[in-house]
Sequence to fold (312 residues):
Amino acid sequence: MTEFGFIEQIRTRFAALPDNGFEGIGDDCAVMPLGGGESLVFTADLLTEGVHFLRTATTARELGRKSLAVNLSDVASMGARPVATLLSIALPADAADAWAAEFMEGYRELSEAFGTALVGGDTTRSQSGITINVTAIGRAPSAHLKRRSDAHPGDVIFAAGELGASGAGLRDILAGRCDTPLAAIHRNPQPQVAEGLWFGTRPEVHAMMDLSDGLASDLRHILDRSGVGAEVDVECIPVAPGADVRTAACAGEDYKLLLTAAPDDAERLAAEFEARFRSPLHPLGRITAASGLVWLRNGKPEPLDWHGFEHY
Ligand code: ADP
Ligand code: MG
Fold:
């Protein structure tokens, strides 16, 4: 079974249970309105040795930062401010105390940088391999929340950064080249927290998510949840230096924001983003009423069998 098939099965199995006021499975975070126009958002991400990282190819400090960063990215992608985290960690006997201390120092550094409190978690021995689970909690005015389900036909699709560097870095790491600049990018994702908060304040931004599994997969989540389709101009995909367009479209872990915006306001949004963040907002294509994801080259459909990451 695929990762998404499994999640769909969970959703069906639990559909009849009470939601207790939560917007549940399906977005980057679960949403809980607090009353008074504010909401909390919740997300959890798991990193497991051999699947998400190789202990020999990353420092403990980098891993401490990354395990928090990927969760902050999910909170930011809702337009929310990360406020607190819970950290659960399973450590095998061969992970030394020094490794754990260095991991926690990385986690602390990034917590300090983004002003998040560590408010709980769990610690246990593991029979084999390191497993890390972080739960992050964010807060936002409810009107600022951005969901995957709000893309409208005609919207312009944007990526808030270049894509493919992390995937190209992973390729380097798997080839035994851990000291390249791209490998460093792969190990040190930078969550777009300030950017996500800013998009949250912009009503012309309709749908938003973070790119963790690759554009080809993640955009399909917006399309499915919104009941729309999309045309993406392959020439417009912003390919990071050192990557190629297929990697940019299919490899994961870039942790850039993917969003859709009302067409009349899209140009102004992009200009203001660039002025504020000193980095371009890249238009990729548009949302269509007809379902399906169509890749266009020179304005003509091209049948590309492009898919993103699956972790299961
Ligand atoms: P993301 O890439 O943003 O972390 P995923 O694609 O991993 O999101 O997950 C999609 C949705 O499925 C999310 O809403 C997530 O909370 C939910 N989900 C994933 N795994 C589980 C699980 N084991 N139990 C309940 N919900 C899950
Ligand atoms: Mg996400």
Remarks:
- Residues 97-114 form the longest helix (18 residues).
- The mean pLDDT is 96.
- The two ends are 8 Å apart (CA to CA).
- Residues 63 and 155 are 37 Å apart (CA to CA).
